[in-house]
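[Solved] Which block belongs to which protein?

Original post:
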Amino acid sequence: MKKRLLILMATLLTLVGCSAKEDTKDTNVLKKVSVVLDWTPNTNHTGLYVAKKLGYFKEQGLDVEILLPGEAGADQLVASGKAEFGVSYQEAITQARVQDVPLVSIAAVIQHNTSGFASIASKGITSPKDFEGKTYGGWGAPLEQAVLQSLMQTEHADIHKLDIVNAGDLDFFTMMQKNIDFAWIFYAWTGIEAELRGEKLNMLYLTDYSNQLDYYTPVLATNEKMINNDPETVKAFVAAAAKGYDYAIQHPNEAADILLEAVPDLDKELVHKSQEWLADKYQDDAAQWGEQKLTVWENYAKWMSSNNVLEGEFNAKQAFTNDFLPKKETK
């Protein structure tokens, strides 16, 4: 009897040990990767936080760490291989590619450009012609002046009559208190914040003046080495992200709560209102979330070249890919 009891105990210990090993194996099977944001967390990033919270990354075998960019910036970290994925922009990737920096866009976060030049309504800036005699606050990039000039040319306005100042890291509302008349914003965040403040804005969207300025901003990016050496991980990441953004499209309030849970310092009302505004803009008229079109990449590169902000040969087909997007089920 005693011998049989000892055998039973040994068997149970063996089974427990096997179970523990299996649990450890299940944990180890998750591949650790990181995604670097382009800025502080906001509703452009909600799909990533949803994918992490609801286990979509885990379903794909990934343990994803969401990182803030720091001084290096997402593009530099991704290009150097110090991070597997990042949030970037079409304009940045286009410029990187002509400098042989191997960044590749793997999904469009928002289908159409929702940025533009905003001003407090009392400034009376209702068209690019009204930029004359005004002060623009920006960050000092050549691209800014090219965009401003492009819009002003549509109304035969003279950019030399516009004062362009480097406002550094000042936010829009602080700029408006410092004799700056207008700035470049994303309406989904700053525009919604203005609404909540009861501040009426005049908003001149870039897409209202040129279809060449309807580019993808932001996008999810990786580097060529990752695509060539570990395509399965790229596919898994994009599949989970797509599921996260699809959830945000269908459930904006719940998605907003997930972002707020991850980043509790964010303004609750702003996050919810912004999420509602973006819900139908993530995918918009595309066949599926994340899809990118060759013509959009080619048109914007042509605009950049013609406005002297892009030097060198640009191959649009190498700058982006739809290959990792989930395959749509056919009925």
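(Second protein starts here: sequence line, then its structure tokens.)
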Amino acid sequence: MSRNDMPLIIHPAGRDEELGRALADLRVDRWLSTRELLLKTGRDWALRTARSQVLGAVAVHSGAIRAWCEEEPGSPDALMMSARVMTQRALLSVRSGASLRQQARISDLARQACWRGMARADPYDPVFHVCLLALAQVASEWRLPDRQRPELYGEPPESLAPWGPWPLLWEVLRRHPDNREALHRMLQYFHARGAGGIEFAQWEASRAEVGSVRLTLPLYALAESYRRQLAQGVLVSKFVFWARGTVRYHAERAVRDWFDVVEPAERSLLDLNHLAYVLSASGGQGADRVFTAIGPYATTAPWKQLQGDSFRRDAWQEDFLRARAYAWERKRRGR
């Protein structure tokens, strides 16, 4: 089988086999493997944050975490996962079109779950504040008057940065500098409000050190900007959007100062897929190596969100395969 015929593996756990087993158990309301996985993960805050995010997204559709909390009510890990599930429920309420009153009620329950968990958790665990930061993007939160949610309206560290929930971000980064999810939750907050995302991503990238995940933030901001222009019908052309020098600058800097220096196990598959997309769309150098690092583990984002007006479910996979084949062929020909 040639590299171009490599079948795609599309799974929320990616190449994390232990996480995959825990997810399979959650889907049938079993929580013991989740407890064992989190115990094994320990105080590796990057891995704990990443794994618990995926676990929460699956557990929200089962009763496993509720059963765990009933069985072990004092378990910090169970309380953390309860906060994860409640936070995910609040985010889903937005996507389902719930009223602001309903969003506020579910967000309040999630916030209470976070505070309950903090009382028993390791004080250095960043996940509870990550959850609080995720709740900031719920419309019922940021539409309240500033005085009712002071944690959402901290003054930005510099005039170039937009106003937003900086106090919550700082609480996470104080516990775990460069926490990937926290930075993305902050970006999602600005996207939810409809402004400030590009400014935030570029500001964070401008002050990022070599190896920092902050260097990938502009890729997400650019993808969201493209998606919105596509949805609104105001996009002049795909080529014009992605051919800009600033786009290629951010993509190639992410290759040079993030992809080339970070250990393979520490690279998020979602970050790799965004990098591959932007490099392919902009004609930047290095797409072949990024696709090799991805292997068969394609993620739906950004490919599916940016596929245009195609209504076929698998169209995004065809886009991925075409971009991968072109990148590898371009490398083979030395172009």
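Accepted answer:
You had them paired correctly. Confirming on the second one: The chain has 17 helices and no strands.
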